[in-house]
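Assess the record.
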Amino acid sequence: MSLLELENASRLQHGVWIAAAALLAVLILAPWWADDSDLRSIAEFAYLVAIAQMWNLLAGYGGLISVGQQVFIGIGGYTLLILSLDAGISPFLCIPVAGVVSALFAVPIAAVVFRLQGPYFAIGTWVVADVFRLALDNVPAIGGGSGKSLTSALMSIPGWQREATTYWIALGLGVGLTIGVYLILRSRLGLAMTAVRDSVPASESLGVRVGRTKLLIYVASALGLGMAGALIYLTKLRVSPDAAFSMDWTVLMIFIVVIGGIGTVEGPIVGTAVFFFLRAMLADFGPWYLVILGSVAVVVMLKARRGIWGWVAGRFNFHVFPTRRRIRVNSLRSGFAEMPPSPRYLTE
């Protein structure tokens, strides 16, 4: 028996997972018991969780603060448009392809923006997204600045089948990317990510390949955002440069993650729930809606800098997705077993 061993999830965490699995089973059957508006709301919730998880992976765990991640949502949307209208591929099959295309674009984009550091990196990512927007504004074949409709690509699909399939893909994307982030964080890549985020010199001294780690994080985030972008515009039925490459997408990701809890897997889920609640409560406030949202974000950042879930986890020491292994001291059969515990022995 070793002196230290890793502690896994608690019984309470297992109970939460079982409850979540039961809820997921109910949601999978939603096309048979929910109306179209409910399906669209759940699908929107799922894809917002998905894009927030991707920004959280990049910034919260990788330390790469980007304000230009909308570029991959736009690439995903336009991949869907081109492949479904011009190549005749099923719009549903275009969604994973859009993720791959976005990941491929992420490699040369990373080669440019990774030359920048700190705030210059953030500004550089925004400039790249705006370059894509301006470029597609001047391509008449895909609608130019006014964009193009996707309605004709979906006309041959029965209404119920279209709504249900879109819903299931959204649900799968939200759940799948959340689990994917959790698995990454439990892997060696996750340890390398957090090491790079905390200190590049220290991680290099431990043998972490910093450039490779950052590239993998960036490409993984682009993959998820590309699929989410294709799904988003499959539900909106029209793609235009100003909408697809709008900075509003990244602002929404940042708001959700900051409110929910940056650097936690649970944060984007909590943040999306808070956003939906505030949007429903403030729908009649007109322009004041955005002012109140901004005020809520400022208050949370001042009172709970780690976000709502970060505060809950710190206060009650509870994690639904435990990404940090806890050290537990075991007694040994040797003479060390009789050694009285003290803080000095636990920290050395």
Notes: Confidence is low (pLDDT under 50) at residues 1-6, 331-348. The radius of gyration is 22 Å.
